[in-house]
């Protein structure tokens, strides 16, 4: 049996962070588990996981229980536990450098100041994993980016948020079903 896909949604644990821009990855992970009819359970790797099927493929959807800047430990532990190769590891995260509503996928690359990605890359010893990047836009004016990502979505964004999250979850499922190149062609063309 081939190893499962490991889909990791990034965020910060706890109710006080639940609706923040930085928790977009958690929101997509919740949506993927709900679509599959599953529930999260605590795993010894310090993460909540759902094991099931996504797009007809065996998959584990995970939400680390650590804060964002310590996500790497749980991700590496899950990767080792499930013996998931890098090409089947998908990290879903918020992205400041994409406009709100834009979804992009890529393999590898830098962390672009994202503490969750920095921690994961350090713990894995490689940048070669797939990222599903959820655009949250840049902070207005001179607002500190750290404050912006830890703030809730604006009223205007909240009206569109469910559609944005659904598209992001669709991108993950398409990736699992059809691979990176086909998913990039489909989702990157939509927002040209």
Written overview of the protein:
The chain has helices spanning 24-35, 72-82, 115-124, 145-149, 155-178, 180-190; strands at 5-9, 41-43, 47-54, 57-64, 89-95, 103-107, 130-135. The chain is an alpha/beta fold. The protein starts with a strand and ends with a helix. The mean pLDDT is 95.
Can you lay out the helices and strands and say which pair or pack?
Blueprint: E1 5-9, H1 24-35, E2 41-43, E3 47-54, E4 57-64, H2 72-82, E5 89-95, E6 103-107, H3 115-124, E7 130-135, H4 145-149, H5 155-178, H6 180-190
Parallel strand pairs: 1-4, 1-5, 5-7
Antiparallel strand pairs: 2-3, 3-4, 6-7
Summarize the structure.
The chain is of the alpha/beta class and 192 residues long. It has one domain (5-190): Peptidyl-tRNA hydrolase (Rossmann fold), CATH 3.40.50.
């Amino acid at each position: 049996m081939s190893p499962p896909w490991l889909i990791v949604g990034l965020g910060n644990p706890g109710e006080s962070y639940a609706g923040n821009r930085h928790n977009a990855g958690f929101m997509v992970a919740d949506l993927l588990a709900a679509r599959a009819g599953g529930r999260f359970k605590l795993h010894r790797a310090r993460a909540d996981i759902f094991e099931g099927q996504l797009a007809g493929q065996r998959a584990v959807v995970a939400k680390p229980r650590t804060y964002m800047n310590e996500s790497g430990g749980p991700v590496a532990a899950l990767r080792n536990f499930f013996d998931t190769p890098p090409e089947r590891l998908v990290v879903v995260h918020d992205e400041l450098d994409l406009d709100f509503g834009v979804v992009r996928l890529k393999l590898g690359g830098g962390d672009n100041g994202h503490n969750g990605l920095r921690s994961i890359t350090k713990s894995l010893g490689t940048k070669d994993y797939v990222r599903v990047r959820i655009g949250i836009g840049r902070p207005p004016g001179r607002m500190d980016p750290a404050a912006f990502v830890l703030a809730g979505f604006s009223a205007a964004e909240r009206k569109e948020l469910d559609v944005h999250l659904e598209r992001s979850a669709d991108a993950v499922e398409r990736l699992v079903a059809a691979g990176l190149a086909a998913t990039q062609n489909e989702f990157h063309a939509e927002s040209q």
